[in-house]
Design a protein that fits this description.
By secondary structure, the protein is α/β, with parallel strands linked by helices. Helix content is 27%, strand content 24%. It contains 8 helices and 14 strands. It has helices at residues 2-26, 79-83, 101-106, 119-125, 187-196, 227-236, 257-266, 284-287, and strands at 29-34, 37-42, 45-49, 88-90, 112-115, 131-133, 137-140, 143-151, 164-172, 175-179, 200-204, 241-245, 273-274, 281-283. Strands 6-5-4-3-2-1-14 form a 7-stranded mixed beta sheet. Strands 7-8-9-10-11-12-13 form a 7-stranded mixed beta sheet. The protein is globular, with a radius of gyration of 20 Å. The protein starts with a helix and ends with a helix.
Length: 290
């Protein structure tokens, strides 16, 4: 009799653990890897956004800024762990601070890579055979990814990735997250955010800019979101949580996590803007304020 009861209790515990695992697996999580590299778990799939996988200081600097080699900081753990369980890559745009030579070499050539129009050709030239262009929207494995036009800098014109850029809205069931990509808060991004009303935004900040004269863009013009623009988004979307990324690893990014955290504290925005460390995992239910 005791054995039968014990067996029954063991089965109940086992079933509960299994159901808990399923619930955990299906719940969205957002993990900062480094800079704009983020891993999203949703619908039992793992999407790696903008993989830069190089060791610290092994890649040439972004031109027209300082001469510091990139990345400026280490990965929080091994590249093998970064790539563990990755089912697909989302490349917001084909720039070396979003897809580096190390990622090009380490990713399997048949890895599914979602990208904006035009970047598929560049990826195919590098030998990647499984690219899927997101023109407006597509659904894959229960996850819908919608693309919205944005501006990489004020007055941006022309083809991606440096003129008009791309933001992305990922939805899995009732959970959703908006990735700004490299964008500024102009009419394009504002309209996209108002249209989607995302509960969570992963925002590329860093206040990236050139500091030397060049034929592309005048020094001092920012190419990613500023502290003031992040604050403006909290006013635009009062119920949205912002996860700020794209800092400390790339030489032309002037805003550090330390400086942003001070700004967030001074402006009393700690409940609205999260500044994670590399490797931090943020459960969706923790950051969703709606």
């Amino acid at each position: 009799m005791k054995k039968a009861v014990l067996s029954m209790l063991t089965a109940l515990v086992s079933n509960f653990a299994a159901s808990a695992t399923v619930a955990t697996d299906s719940a969205m999580t957002i993990q900062l890897i480094r800079s704009a590299t983020v891993k999203v778990a949703a619908s039992n799939k793992h999407i790696l956004v903008d993989p830069i996988l190089a060791d610290k200081g092994t890649e040439p600097p972004i031109p027209f800024a300082n001469d510091k080699k990139i990345p400026g900081i280490d990965l929080p753990f091994s590249r093998d762990l970064v790539l563990k369980d990755v089912d697909a890559v989302l490349l917001t745009h084909y720039h070396p601070d979003h897809f580096d030579e190390a990622a090009e070499k380490m990713l399997p050539k048949n890895m599914l890579i979602f990208c904006q129009p035009g970047d598929d050709i560049k990826l195919q030239e590098k030998g990647f055979t499984n690219t899927r262009v997101i023109d407006s929207s597509l659904t894959w494995e229960g996850i819908t990814i919608s693309r919205y036009l944005s501006s990489h800098h004020k007055g941006a014109v022309g083809a991606p990735p440096f003129g008009i850029s791309s933001s992305y809205y990922l939805r899995a069931g009732k959970q959703s997250v908006f990735f700004t990509g490299d964008a500024i808060l102009d009419e394009l991004l504002t309209n996209s955010l108002l249209r989607t009303q995302p509960p969570v935004i992963v925002a590329n900040t860093g206040e990236c800019q050139f500091t030397r004269e060049n034929p592309i863009l005048a020094p001092g013009i920012t190419m990613t979101l500023t502290t003031g623009e992040l604050k403006a988004i909290t006013t635009l979307l009062p119920s949205t949580t912002i996860i700020a990324v794209h800092m400390d690893a790339i030489n032309h990014c002037n805003l550090s996590k330390t400086a942003l955290r001070k700004y967030v504290n001074d402006e009393k925005l700690k409940s609205r803007i999260v500044v994670p460390n590399e490797g931090d995992v943020l459960p969706y239910k923790q950051v969703n304020r709606k």
